[in-house]
Design goal:
Layout: E1 7-17, E2 25-30, E3 51-54, H1 64-68, E4 74-77, E5 81-84, H2 94-98, E6 104-107, E7 109-112, H3 113-121, H4 124-130, E8 133-137, H5 145-157, E9 162-166, H6 172-179, E10 184-188, H7 194-201, H8 206-217, E11 222-228, H9 236-247, E12 253-260, H10 265-271, H11 286-297, E13 303-305
Parallel strand pairs: 2-8, 8-9, 9-10, 10-11, 11-12, 12-13
Antiparallel strand pairs: 1-2, 1-7, 3-6, 4-5
Helix pairs in contact: 3-5, 5-6
Bound molecules: iron/sulfur cluster (SF4) (2 copies).
Amino acid sequence: MEQHPVFGVVNDIQRMCTCDGPGFRTVVFLKGCYLDCRWCHNPEGKRRFPEVIPYVGNCEGCGECLTVCPTGAVTVDDGLGPRIDRGLCSTCLQCVKACKYDALVLWGRIMLAEQVVAEVELDKMIHVNSGGGVTISGGEPMAQPDFVLAIMAACKARGISTALDTCGHAPWEDLKRVLEYTDLVMFDIKQMDGHKHREYSGVGNELILENAKRIASLGVPIRFRIPIIPGSNDSTRNWESAARFIECLGDAVLGVDLLPYHPFAGGKYRAFGMDYPYPGGEGLADDDVAPVIDLFLKHVPEVTVGG
Ligand code: SF4
Ligand code: SF4
């Protein structure tokens, strides 16, 4: 049967990563997300399509972008750099080409699945020698399920181990298709209380928890990634609830990776000329994280910090 080319939108491909699964990984970050977490560290990954993002600190105020923009989507404020009105921008890229100071940058590449796989395959020997592989991450990769499926299936066919880094908020039918070609799932649990989950991420957690159960019941190895966000989910009650939920999922669970909140995301938002919706205060000290590690270790085989 003739295979149709599958396209998707890639935010970035990073090589030799050690954080997103075992061994050395090639991590493919896709654009688009079903959630809108207030503390999101990757605002450039949220929208599904390529977009122009300003680096306000680079702007010299020359005004070239204003001259070339056909839709009036770009404005430049003294001292604040360029701003893009997403409703007006047609992504024609005239401003990106005109700016000599790299103050306007295109984020997101439209790629064929086979192009992504070709890039991943460059690292195949490193994967094999280190016990690594490819990790598909986001944004939320399952916002582009056919693209993920095509990449994962082709990688598996080439003997490359595969991991999926997901928030779990995706139709089960899509997840099930991808799981056929997935060696490891890294699954986010942000909050066990459904109302709070909706308050901080824009969606409830019912589908997420249901999908976690379904993945575990298929026996696909799964690690849970749990952000520790001060003022949002950092209560003993939440950790107890998450630990008991994960423990009940059985042998498929490999462990938990705790991801303590870090305030560096605020600098990224400033660089992009965006308001950070969750300033959240200082980063967490080891003493803040230690009790959470102890609590989870009573319920799961392994706990790491940083993932
Ligand atoms: S964004 Fe670039 S082109 Fe526009 S005013 Fe700033 S430096 Fe000039
Ligand atoms: S990409 Fe095109 S439409 Fe969008 S702000 Fe730049 S010049 Fe204007």
